[in-house]
Every structure is written in C-alpha cells, then in structure tokens.
Write a structure and sequence with these properties.
alpha+beta, two-stranded antiparallel sheet, 12 helices
Length: 336
C-alpha cells in the first residue's frame, strides 16, 4: 500500500481482523441452537451481566449480528459515525465529553442563536478542510520510516490465538516490584492493553477499556503496557496532537520513555497497573503491540483473543465479548 502511494485506512493487509477462539458459531453450539436462530435471556446459560455485554444491540436476543465487528456491519458503521461526532465535540481528546465541552460546541455551532438547525449542526461537524490538516497526511518516506522503526506497528505478527502468550517482566510506572505475566495467570484470565501517548485513537478509546476494567476487575487481571510512540515530533507528527499539548520526541532511553508514560498516565488516569516496555521494545515486538492492541489470555496462558492492529482494530467492546465468553466457558466447566 505504501509503495503504491496509498494511505493506511484499516482495509489493507497490514490491518488484519481480530482473532478469537470464541464466535457466534461457538455460542450457538453451546446453547444448542441453529446459527440462524437467536438466544433469548431465558435460554442463555450465563448471568444477566454476561447477556448484556453479548446482546450488543439490546433487543433481548443474542444473534450472530451482535458478535460481528467487521466494518461492513450496520451497527458498527453507525457506531463509527457516532464516534466521529463524539470526537468532534471532545475537544480534550481524552474520550470524556464534559458539560463544558458540550456548551462550547453549542455556542460555536449556534453562532449567537438560541438553537441549532440541521444545516449548522452538519457544518459544525463537517468543517471544510483547511491548511492545518495537511501535515497529518504523511509522505511515503514518513510512512516507510514509521514502518521500519516500528512506530506504526511491529514488523512481527505477535502470538496467534491458541498459542502460548510470551512471558515478560516489566517495571510498573508507579514503582515497586516488577510484574511478570506468568505470575498473573493461573486463577484468572489476563487482559493486555498496549498503547502510547501520541496515538490519538488510543487516548480517545482508552476510557472504553477502563469501563471494561471496572466491570471485570474481580474476574480478570488487567495490565497496561506502554510501548513505542506512534506519532513523535521526529517522526509522523500530528497537528491534532500539537493542539492538545501532546508533543514529544521518540524516547531514546528507558528513563525518557518512563517520563512520557507519566504524561500519558496524568492524561488518562488509568486504574490498572501501567508497565513500561524496555527501550528495545522487546514486549511490544513480542506481541506486535504497536501502536495499540488488545489481548485476552486464558488462565493456562493460551491466547484466546487478539485484536486487530491499532488504531483501526483497537475495539475494547469486541475484546470484552471474548472475555465474557471465556468466563461463560469457565462457569460451564465448573458446573460439570
């Protein structure tokens, strides 16, 4: 794609879809229903919380439609459109929409009026392109540089579903004893979250990860792994980052990466442990975690879910569905 002069848009081979041991076919077989049928709450073998996360469109029945996260799924397409609207209003770029930001959007769109008509609403959300948007479109040279340096993703593929998760030991940003992955496994699944400060979509979507963490913190261990910057000022720099005060060069030492990770933590306020990858990117490369990625690892250390490469494949709610089905499987096995 780069050689042809194209841009990265989430539809090319570099951005492969997610992998999961769980699927609608698996869920239908577990419930002994035909794939073209649905699963009602009464027939569902799990609890209310599990059903709610799997019944994505909230119509009272789980179908294959609810577990389809491909870009051509109508629900996903509508969700993407709503996300673009939300991001336009979220002037802080942190995935939180405050009353102040809503009021500010209204004032700007209304232009002195007491109401917003459709035309003004549309124009506010779809402003004409300006010169400030040009620097964010990278040249072929910048893309090749980002590819070879691992800023737009590791050249390695990372472990596939069904394979053992590579072990690692990393220091937490907060200090204290280093955390080893293998010591987090055994009794609970582990969710790995990879990301970095200069990846705007990661910052925006991180609050969805926090929501998943709050819902499952007693059932799974969550680890946030800080990896190589996606858009440093000495690489594919983004004016959208500069406007938000996110302007950092690619760290050259662990200490520099740790300092940038502290800025990221101050912005996102993560509740899960934040581990900082070594400056040689050993963990990020082992999992192909750059620029952002999600994994679910079963208690026995086997990968059961691997998201697509970020930013396009970074889908926390898709990850949560695999985590829920892993929990459902475990509860069924315990009942035997």
């Amino acid at each position: 794609v780069i050689a042809r002069g194209g841009q990265l848009d989430g539809r090319s081979g570099w951005f492969k879809p997610s992998q999961s041991r769980f699927s609608w076919q698996w869920l239908a077989e577990l419930h002994k229903v035909e794939p073209d049928k649905g699963i009602t709450r009464e027939a569902f073998l799990g609890n209310d919380a599990m059903f709610k996360r799997l019944d994505r469109d909230r119509d009272g029945t789980i179908r294959g439609f609810d577990l389809d996260w491909s870009d051509n799924n109508p629900w996903v397409m509508q969700s993407q459109m709503i996300t673009r609207v939300f991001r336009r209003m979220d002037m802080g770029g942190d995935g939180r929409l405050s009353r102040k930001e809503l009021d500010s959007f209204f004032e700007g769109a209304a232009a002195g009026d007491d109401e917003i008509l459709l035309e003004k609403f549309r124009d506010a959300l779809m402003p004409p392109p300006g010169p400030s948007s040009v620097p964010d479109a990278p040249s072929k040279e910048i893309l090749i540089k980002g590819l070879m340096e691992g800023e737009i993703g590791s050249l390695q593929e990372g472990p596939a579903v069904g394979e053992k998760a590579p072990d690692f030991e990393l220091k937490p940003l907060a200090g204290g004893k280093a955390v080893r992955l293998s010591e987090q496994l055994g009794n609970k699944p582990v969710v790995l979250v990879f990301g970095n400060f200069t990846c705007g979509p990661f910052r925006f979507n991180y609050q969805a990860v926090e929501s998943v963490h709050r819902r499952h913190s007693d059932k799974a261990n969550f680890l946030l792994v800080y990896v190589r910057e996606a858009h440093p000022t000495d690489g594919w720099s983004m004016t959208s980052n500069e406007k938000l005060g996110v302007s950092v060069a690619q760290p050259k030492s662990y200490e520099e990466r740790n300092a940038v990770a502290q800025q990221c933590a101050a912005r996102l306020n993560p509740s899960m442990p934040l581990l900082v990858d070594e400056i040689d990117d050993r963990t990020g490369n082992a999992y192909s975690g750059m620029p952002a990625r999600l994994y679910v690892i079963a208690p026995d250390g086997t990968i059961v879910y691997k998201s697509g490469r970020g930013p396009f494949g970074f889908k926390p709610e898709e990850m949560e569905q695999s985590l829920v089905m892993l929990q459902l499987e475990a509860s069924m096995n315990q009942g035997k």
